[in-house]
Amino acid sequence: MPDADAPSATFRELKEPTDIAAALEQGRLLFAGSCEFIFGAQKLGQLPPQTLPEIAFAGRSNVGKSSLINALTGRKALARASSEPGRTKQLNFFNLADRLMLVDMPGYGYAKAAKSVKEDWQEMMFDYLRGRPGLKRVMLLLDARIELKAHDLEVMKLLDKAAVSFQIVLTKCDAVKPQALARKQEAMQALTARHPAACPFLSLTSSEAGEGIESLRAELAEFALPPT
After folding, report:
1. Strand order across the 54-59 sheet
2. 47: left (phi over 0), alpha (psi -120 to 50) or beta
3. Do residues 200 and 208 touch, judged by C-beta distance below 8 A?
4. Number of domains in the chain
5. pLDDT tens digit sequence for 214-226
6. Does 185 map to a domain?
7. Which residues form a coiled coil (predicted)?
8. What DSSP designation does 35 have?
9. Distance of CA 16 to the CA centre of its chain
10. Whole-number Å distance between alpha carbons of 100 and 89
11. pLDDT (tens digit, 9 = 90+) per residue, 25-45?
12. Range of the domain at 59
């Protein structure tokens, strides 16, 4: 498969091995710190005060959001998938070492979810996205094994409309053959060019195999408050 640990953003721009190693170590130290669930908000009025930079994780139901958050933090069950995909509207907030807030957004696009639930998701998520100035980036997870869905494109348009920077993260990349994954990566790169809020790079990950996790930690560490 393509190099899933290739650095991205300013991390990607690093050339010297010592600089890359230092950035990876900063990411490791951040995500090795304490990480605690602090609140689950079902309504906008329930959102906790913004005291830390926020990184939100969005994606279709069963795309692997919980698995990715658990892999990044080195926990087995910090984030848990809902027993009823597509029906949970809760935003879950995790305090990472008092330096960064991880926000697990409810999954979207579940076929059995009622229409009203889907509409409520869009309304609540849009209000959250446009009304949260501390939100630094949305990591938009897409399953590398399957084709892009209409709901994914709708969410990208929603992020463009909210003017919130988002980055595509391909999940379950270990289950895709190298040539197919390379084609998928090329298609996703072309897609980002059509969305003004999209970052011009993407991450390839496998929560199970650990691919891309170290570099993604290093990248997210760039948004964290400095260690005290």
Report:
1. 35-41, 91-96, 100-104, 54-59, 135-143, 166-171, 198-204
2. beta
3. no
4. 1
5. 999 999 999 999 9
6. yes
7. none
8. E
9. 27
10. 22
11. 999 999 999 999 998 887 777
12. 9-221
Is the separation of the CB atoms in 1 and 204 below 8 Å? yes
Q: How far apart are CA 56 and CA 91, in angstroms?
A: 9
With 0-12 CB in 10 A as exposed, 13-18 as middle and 19+ as buried, what is 186?
exposed
Mean pLDDT of 141-160: 91
Find the CATH number of the domain harbouring 76.
3.40.50.300
**Domain-embedded: residue 226:** no
Classify residue 122 by burial, with Cβ atoms within 10 Å: 0-12, 13-18, 19+.
Answer: middle
Query: Phi and psi of 112, rounded to 5°?
Result: -90, -5
For residue 10, how many other CB atoms are within 10 A of its CB? 11
Locate 69 and state its tokens: 């958050």
pTM score, whole prediction = 0.87
Among residues 115, 162, 105, 114, the alpha carbon closest in space to that of 139 is found at 105
Between CA 31 and CA 193 the distance in angstroms is: 30
User: In the predicted model, is pLDDT for residue 123 greater than 90?
Assistant: no
Supply the angle between the helices 213-221 and 17-32 in degrees, to the nearest 10: 80
Q: Alpha carbon 75 to chain centroid distance?
A: 16
Asked if 168 and 142 count as a contact pair (C-beta separation under 8 A), the reply is yes
Specify if 60 maps to a domain: yes
